[in-house]
Structures are given as C-alpha cells and as structure tokens.
Design brief:
The structure is a homodimer.
Chain A: H1 2-35, E1 40-46, H2 52-68, E2 73-79, E3 84-87, E4 94-97, E5 99-100, E6 107-111, H3 126-134, H4 138-147, E7 151-155, H5 158-165, E8 173-174, H6 181-186, E9 190-191, E10 196-200, E11 203-206, H7 211-224, H8 226-236, E12 244-245
Parallel strand pairs in A: 1-2, 1-6, 2-5, 6-7, 7-11, 8-9, 10-12
Antiparallel strand pairs in A: 3-4, 10-11
Helix pairs in contact in A: 2-7, 2-8, 3-5, 7-8
Chain lengths: 273, 273
C-alpha cells in the first residue's frame, strides 16, 4: 500500500509539476544565461536584535527569484562584524551571517529593523536595540554604502529608523513602521505614508514588518522584470500591495492641510471644509 | 549636534510610543495574568530543507502575540531529533531547534513545508525534501500528535503534503501550495481551494508560503481573541486574507461540475452553461 502510494505520488508530482519545471528551464536557457555576468547581489544586514521576518521575508523572495532566473540574483546574510552568529530580537533564534557587509560591492544592501517591545527604553525595546546597532561599525559601513553609486539601499520597518539615526536619511523620502513615523521625521527624513517608498532608485524603504515582501518584490521586478516577480508571487501565494511611492507625476492636493498642490492648473485655494 | 539628535530622538520616541506602551501594559495587568496558568505552547517543527518563511512567519506572529498578551502564548522551534542546527532549503541559513518535538504536550504543533525546486526529483527539489523528512522519526511523532486531543496540528504550504505523505490526512479537508493540490488529493486528503482550511478545531492547514501568516493569525484569534490578533496585525502592517474554510453552514452550489449542492432549497439541476 505504501509502495502504491509512493508510485501515485511520483506520477502525480511528475505530471502536476512538469509545467512549472519546464517554465523554469526556459527562463534559464533564455534570459538568465546572458545576464549571468551581471548578476545582482543582495546583502541582508543582520545585527543583534534584528527582526527575523524583516530580514528573511526579503531573503526568501530574492532566493526564489534567483532560483527562477538561473541565479540572475544572489542573496546572502551579512553583518558589520563579518561571519558570526547573530541573535534575533525577542529571544528569537540566531542566524549565521556568512560574510562581512561589503559597502563597495555593487547591488542591493537591505537593512531590517529590530524585534522587541515597540516602546520604552528597556534592554529588549526596539528603540534601544536600534540605538545599540547605531553604535557599531555598521554606521560607518552604511555611510560608505550610501556613497557607492552602484548600491541600492533598501530598508524594512525599523531599518529606516536605524539609517535615520545614523544621519543618512536627511531630507530623503522614506517610510517605516507606523509607530516610528514621527521619530523618522525627527531624525530629518521626510516621512511618506506608503507601504514602499522609492526616494530615488538608490533608496527604497518599507513600512512595517510584512512590507518587506513588497520591498523585495519591487526590487525583483525592477532588476529582473515582471515575469520573475510574478513567478515568485505565485509560488508564495502573495499579492503585492500598494503603490510604490515616488516623487513623480502630479502631486495630490493636500486637503487636510488646506494647502494647494504644486501641480499646475490646481485651484489656488482649498475648497471649504 | 549628535547629542541634540539623541535628545530629539528620546523625546520623540517617548512621546510617540507612550500610547502603545500603555496599551501593552494594560493588557499585561488585566487579561494576561489570569491566563498565565493555561498559556498555550506552540511547537514549530524544523526538518532538513524546511522553508524559512513557512516556519518563521508564524513563529513571529506567535511571539508578538505572546509579547502583547503577557506570554499567554509561547513558541519554540523543535525537531524530531531534538536540539540541533537544522539547515533550511535552497542552501539557506540554519536555525537552532531548541528541543525535541513533544507530541504529548498540549497546544499547537505547526509543520512547515520545504524550500527548493518546486518540481522534479533532484536532491534539492521540494518533493525529494518532503520524502526525506517523511523517512525520519517525525512521522511517528506526528502520528502520536494526531492522537493527542489536546493538540492542534497546523501546516503551511508543503507541510500539508508532508502529513499527507505520512498517511495522516486521509479524508481530511486540507490545503497546500497550489502546485501541490493534486498530489494532496492523491495522498487521500480532500483538497479545498482556500487560503486557510480548518478541518476540525484540531487540524488547520494553510496554502502557499505567505498563508502561514493567516494560519497563525487565525490561531491567535481563536486562542487569545481578536484584540491580540488585531494588535499583532497592526504591528506587522498585515491584513489577514480570505475566509477560513470550514465544513459548516450552507454548501455552495457547484456550478462547474453541473451538480447540485446538498443544501436544502437549491435547484436540483444546474443552470445551462
């Protein structure tokens, strides 16, 4: 009986799965091989107390995009200190950083937030964990990364706050977890209420935890095209949410503030409330 | 200047975050303390080649629910072999299982799927990784877990297939990744096209990778109530998707099959196509 089940399984799997398999192969032999020389490398930065999902949801999107594209994109976990075991926040499991963050390597550097009590100053609070990360050599490395024109810096959740605390988001459009938006502004960034914000092609930030999926899907589409993004989306049974905000096109009228937008042809005064 | 920024930050964080902090504390001193004696324990099962997100998205939802409820729910990573480092699929990072899966412990046991090539029989294919997991002592342990009336078994993605391969889903309603639905049926389960399926309160299955979030949120609401589920949802900036399917209420007419539903008062024949 067990053997029969095994046979049925083999048949079923072969039959059912032939289609995606064939697709993957087609992709591999067409687009991916010619892109291999310029494959995109993603470094995901771990620090003590990092948030598991902030880091690993994008990690898995990039890894699957690599699988579907014949490694046109590669991803690794890094830390400012180099290869080491990095504990996640809330007494969560540790992850092994494989290498030292290299700000001179072209590609994408993604900074997650911290996991912990969302408020207060206790040792296990998010504000404290971010402050501690700011005091490490990560700050100098990220400063170098911002100077590298071949690098896109991406953030998820508290990752934006960490960069802002490092003084790297002055007058840059960005988003973070809703809880941290006022702090983001206090650190000199221009907070934008969107799930994903692209300040310019080299700075992409995401909101709360699960927005990391949307950040990664946006970057996969931008770098590898919509077919790879769609394939991973289907595999993960996820649909991206929200418009990726950019300072382009017509600016909407800000009715709440009673001010007019800068777009031409808009009325000079706001309608009466 | 740095000091001033530090001050601004402290102020901003204190002011902004006082509200959530106060809420958390209220919860802690009200509901949670009386529930502490019957806190719910979640065991998330790791096996060689497991999918990171399948395991860690629910992990983090349960961990945050614990944080917001004063540990009314606790979560740990386990393996069939006990405390060990377990490699994830697609050459991903390893996670440390903290303990051996205990099928006699009441609570929730969550089984993730595998990460790898979605088809084929290569060493790094999902079908192969699941087959290998099936050959471990995990199968006997899960059989025990199914007999324990104090245990809810939950699955994400290929986790359902793994249980089905173990012969544990005979005639049970379940869902898995869309790619594996036919295989799920071949192994004797009744596949249901929903994001989350509750066969009975003791068996809850999820579809592809990111449905693990919805599985965990459903269980958090069921066990701890909607206020905790909502708090975590807000923190993670996620909205649960889809109806949790159960074999209750009126059964919809199956127009595609040209058959009538069993619900009373429905027409005996299907409308012409």
């Amino acid at each position: 009986m067990k053997r029969m089940l095994g046979l049925i399984m083999s048949f079923a799997l072969v039959i059912i799965l032939v289609a995606p398999s064939a697709n993957a192969k087609t992709t591999k032999s067409n687009d991916a091989s010619k892109d291999k020389s310029k494959s995109i490398h993603v470094q995901i930065v771990l620090f003590d107390g990092f948030d598991l999902l902030d880091a690993l949801a994008p990690y898995e999107v990039f890894a699957a995009a690599g699988m579907y594209s014949g490694e046109a994109i590669t991803v690794e976990l890094v830390s400012a200190e180099g290869k080491r075991s990095v504990p996640s926040g809330m007494n969560g499991p540790s992850l092994e950083a494989e290498a030292k963050l290299d700000p001179n390597r072209s590609g994408i550097i993604l900074v997650p937030g911290a996991a912990g009590k969302p408020a207060g100053n206790s040792e296990d609070s998010v504000p404290n964990l971010l402050r501690q990360a700011k005091e490490t050599s990560l700050t100098a490395l990220m400063r170098q990364a911002f100077k590298n024109k071949e690098v896109t810096v991406a953030t998820v959740c508290g990752g934006s706050l960490l960069l802002a605390m490092q003084g790297l988001l002055k007058d840059r459009y960005a988003v973070t977890n809703a809880i941290g938006m006022a702090a983001l502004k206090a650190f000199g960034a221009i907070p934008i209420d969107a799930r994903v914000v692209e300040d310019d092609p080299r700075l992409v930030s995401g909101g709360g935890v699960t927005s990391g999926l949307d950040v990664a899907f946006h970057l996969v589409e931008r770098e590898l095209g919509p077919r790879i993004a769609n394939a991973v989306e289907k595999l993960f049974e996820y649909e991206r949410r929200g418009t990726v905000w950019r300072a382009e096109g017509i600016e909407p009228i800000d009715f709440a503030a009673g001010q007019t937008a800068s777009a031409k042809g808009q009325p000079a005064t706001s309608p009466a409330k």
